[in-house]
Amino acid sequence: CHPSGCLIDLCLQMGIIMVLKQTWNNFMELGYPLIQNWWTRRRLRREHGQKAKDGFPQWERDYNLQPMNVYGLFDEYLEMILQFGFTTIFVAAFPLAPLLALLNNIIEIRLDAYKFVTQWRRPLPSQAKDIGIWYGILEGIGILSVITNAFVIAVTSDFIPRLVYAYKYGPCAGQGRAGQRCMMGYVNASLSVFRVADFEKKSEPTTNGSEMFGDAVKFCRYRDYREPPVSADPYSYTLQFWHVLAARLAFIIVFEHLVFAIKTLIAYLIPDLPKDLRDRMRREKYLIQEMMYEAELERLQKEKNERKRRKERNGHHKEWP
Known about the structure:
By secondary structure, the protein is mainly α. Helix content is 65%, strand content 3%. The chain has helices at 8-48, 52-55, 58-63, 72-89, 97-119, 133-156, 159-169, 186-189, 210-213, 239-269, 275-318, and strands at residues 191-195, 219-223.
């Protein structure tokens, strides 16, 4: 890995996506209809004169604006979903992403409002109960982001290996505590030994290091948990490697369950509908049911009165000779 970490490439890509790509998207969203409308106004001035547009009625001026794409709203949702995915899934590699996403959304709210009001024709309205399938996609991305960040923290950071060394292999092993002194010797324990003579033909170094160190280098160190070349099973994984791997998997499971438990608790404590709104909805439902009951009762009463009048009329006729 690079000295700054294994996620430096992802960090650079996230920086480009969250800054340059979002800026370019906002520019294109507003710049394209501006250019198109400018060209339309220029064409109208050539056809009808310089002041012809001022004499057009409002509906005709609105008609000359850019038509909204059939998938216009889909593109708006897709843009937000992609941003949410990049922000949540790779936040461990680029912690500045949520702040940049917030700033972009504040700007985009105003740009979209200006675009819908002044640059596009008024779209046809349609009723919708909620955001539809997008809600399920957001839920799936949220679950995936928890799993991804758990693996990133467990695999790419030194958090788990340091804990394992402090409690199992360091000077404080077996004491049930860990402090600054307990990390003495961690760097040496995290490095394995490799014999230079064991290099393959195609991987042999071009120099033996004598011009730099005075003597030929016979051994080198690298980050891993493997047996030394003089052991019975050289370069095989040590017991510390399996302890670190087990601790990483345990951390992933605990981290996921903890985050999901907190998410469920927050969702329970903060309902989707406020209490006063829920009470108003229940009252409205009750009033509707009461109106339906009264209407049905009135209908039945009318039918009863009608049958009674018909019966009296029929009985009155029978009294005639």
